[in-house]
Specification:
Blueprint lengths: L2 E6 L4 E6 L2 E4 L11 H18 L7 E8 L2 H15 L7 E6 L9 E8 L4
Parallel strand pairs: 4-5
Antiparallel strand pairs: 1-2, 2-3, 3-6, 4-6
Helix pairs in contact: 1-2
């Protein structure tokens, strides 16, 4: 059984590929001082980059779990960016929950499972 890991350190890998499935660690944006829209955009850009590195893309996302620091305040702003980013007809299974974040400035984190793109 072959397992490939990307961007690995002692604690975690940013992506793990097993057979035809890609598992991404929770991803966040870089601009911690930014609002929900910018953090969401940066998070999605990082997800897209990791998926490409793993042999997949956003059209192959199977499932995403979205963690929001304040779901009441940020759900609409996050969804506005998500809706523009995601192509029509390929919406994955999705859950969105409110969660405590490991750093106080993080507003959104996303964890993704995707299929490897057919080659």
């Amino acid at each position: 059984m072959h397992i490939r890991r990307l961007s690995t350190d002692n604690r975690m890998s940013q992506a793990v590929i097993h057979r035809d499935t890609v598992y991404l660690a929770g991803q966040v944006g870089e601009s911690m001082e930014a609002g929900i829209e910018q953090q969401t955009l940066e998070t999605l850009q990082e997800i897209e980059r990791l998926l490409v590195d793993a042999g997949s893309n956003k059209e192959h996302i199977l499932s995403v779990t979205i963690y929001l620091k304040d779901i009441e305040r940020d759900f609409a702003g996050m969804n506005a960016v998500w809706d523009r980013w995601l192509s029509a007809g390929v919406a994955p299974a999705r859950a969105t929950v409110e969660a405590g974040m490991c750093e106080s400035d993080i507003l959104v984190e996303m964890s993704v499972i995707a299929a490897v793109a057919e080659q």
